[in-house]
Structures are given as structure tokens and as C-alpha cells.
Amino acid sequence: MVSQTCSPCLRDGILSKAWFIYLNLGMVFLSFTLLVYNLPSKDIHHRYVYNESLLVRPQRLPSGDIKYNIVVVTDLDHLSKNGNHWHSYLKRGFLVMDETATKASVHWSRPDVVLKSDMAAKGRAMELSDLVVFDGQLLSVDDRTGLIYKIMGDQIVPWVFLNDGPGNTTKAFKAEWMTVKDDYLYIGGLGKEWTTASGEYVNDYPMWVKRVSFNGEVVHLNWTHNYKMIRKSLGIGFPAYLIHESCQWSKVHQKWFFLPRRVSEEPYDENKDEFKGSNIVLMASENFANVKKLEIGDRGDGTRGFSAFQFVPNTNDDVIVALKSEEREGRSVASYISVFRISDRTLLMTESRLEGAYKFEGLEFA
């Protein structure tokens, strides 16, 4: 029998234990609530997983032909400045491949979309060099400001800044090409030594490549050896040069494809450079140990050189649509688009001139 003098102590002990259990249950509930609250929702989950969505849906026409939406963009150089802003033209159209994949045609829509930006470097901007679909979005890159832009309708939004060479410089990276490999965006420059107008060596910065994650993280890769291996396959070494404005990684072939803008067996000379245009395709193994060369069509007088290309979807990376641009006396004269098959080097569409005396340097299916 418990003495009544001890009952308050017993009661207090029971209340203390009950309060301790209540507090612990409360902490467990609070922790669970915070955990659930902080879990990523479906609406933001895409921020943590690469978006593999493409922006093109091939359309089969009643004739059996296949229609693909395409888009190209200009690099207007000094002409990009317009008042207090800088601009570029985005042209939309569609590529039609016949049922037997032996003929192709391109048709353009009007009017062009005018992309504007107020951000510049030393009075230059919006000299857009390429187009790519990455992480489900259409991107471009400015070779003057080093900015990667997201294109949203007729708006252009800065995303990532790229600086030159190893990434410890104050100068913007002169980006010329973009491609996607293993869910990373690779962005490259001219792929040759930076020289003076008369060909004197300055640095290797244009031979660096930027690898960008879908979160915008940048890694600076020294591709000097890779670019030299490409030149070596043609029997070319510095001070002779290649200039690259287009590159694509082929997941099908597991190879890097380059369509050089210029190929020269002589040292760089800015006056002669305009006549070093290329008509070759270079296919390099993943580690650049093996490089194969193909010639496509006629080189002409050398004033036209490749500025961009893409593999046509659903062709096992065997059909390429490509842009060439032409410059004379330092001014853009015209741009041309063609379609060809790699396996037999057949032209499915000969070079067709785009409207306007513009230099188109970006091409994508979107």
C-alpha cells in the first residue's frame, strides 16, 4: 500500500515521463514534416535530371515525304549594333526529305525573328555563332561577349559566361561551335593558335574547349593535342592551320565530326584567308587517335566555308544538313545551305543561297 505522502511524487514522475514522450513524438512529427516539405516536387525535379527532350517532331506528309522544322541564326559582326542595342536574326523554315531519302529541299518562313540584347563587350555583341538544343532548350552563344543565351520565342536570356583559354582570363571566349555529348554541352573555338594578322603566334587559347553541365557548371578542357591530331591527319602543322566553326558528336558513330571553315597549308594571312574555304568532312575517334577525311562536292574558288551543320534526325547520322558562308574583303556576302549523305558522299540538295547578304552561323532542328 502506497503512502499518501508519496502520491504527489508518483504523479509528478508519471507526468514527466508523459511530457518526455510527447516532446519526442512531436520532434519526430516535425522532422517528418520538414523532410516531406523539402522533397523536390514534380515541378522542380527537372532541375536535377537532364532533360533529353528534343524540340523537333518530324511530320510525314501525304506524299510520304518527311518534314523537319529548322532554325538558323546570323552573326552580323559590326552590323549587329543598332542604336543602343545589338541584334541578330533568327530565321525559321523546314527541311523536306523525300520518301526514298534521295532528295531534299529547304523552305523558309517570314518574317525573321529579331533577337535583341543590351549586353556588350567593347561595343560588340550578339554575334551568334551556333545553335543547339540542350537540356530541352534552344541555346546560342555570342563569340564577342562569351555569353551562352537561352532563346525563348523572340526573347534571348543570358545563362552562362565563358572566359577565354584555361578560364583564368578576363577576355571572353570566342566560341564558334556547340555540341552535346553524354548530357554535357561542349563549346569550342577556332581550334587554331591565336596569331597576329600576319600569322605570328600569340597563344593557344582558341584550342581550349568548355564543357558545361545542365546546371551551368563550366569545366575548361585543353584540346590543343586533339586539334593538332586533326591537322596531322591532313599533313598540316603550325604555322599552317585549320579553322573550325562547326563540330558535332555522333552517338551513333561514336565519333567527332568536323566540317572545317578553312584549310590552309600556308601561314595565316588575313587577306589570303578568305580563299581557304573547305569542302571536307573530318571524322575523329573519341580519343582523336584516328581521323578520316571525306570530300563533299566542289570547293569552288575557296570563298565558301562551312559555318554550321547538323545530322538529320532518323537517318542514323548518315545525312547532314550544312551551312556555308561567304566573305569577300572582310564583308559577309552570302550564306548557303546544302544536304548530303556521308556513306556515299551524295548531294541530296546542292548549295542553295539564303535570302540576304548575311553570315548564318547556327543551325538546329527546332
From TrEMBL:
Signal peptide: none annotated. Keywords: Calcium, Hydrolase, Membrane, Metal-binding, Transmembrane, Transmembrane helix. One of its GO terms (molecular function) is calcium ion binding. The keyword Transmembrane helix applies. The keyword Transmembrane applies. Ca(2+) binds at S129, D130, E176, E245, S307, E361. The chain crosses the membrane at residues 20-39. Its cofactor is Ca(2+). GO terms for biological process: proteoglycan biosynthetic process. Belongs to the apyrase family. PANTHER family: APYRASE, SOLUBLE CALCIUM-ACTIVATED NUCLEOTIDASE 1. This is Soluble calcium-activated nucleotidase 1.
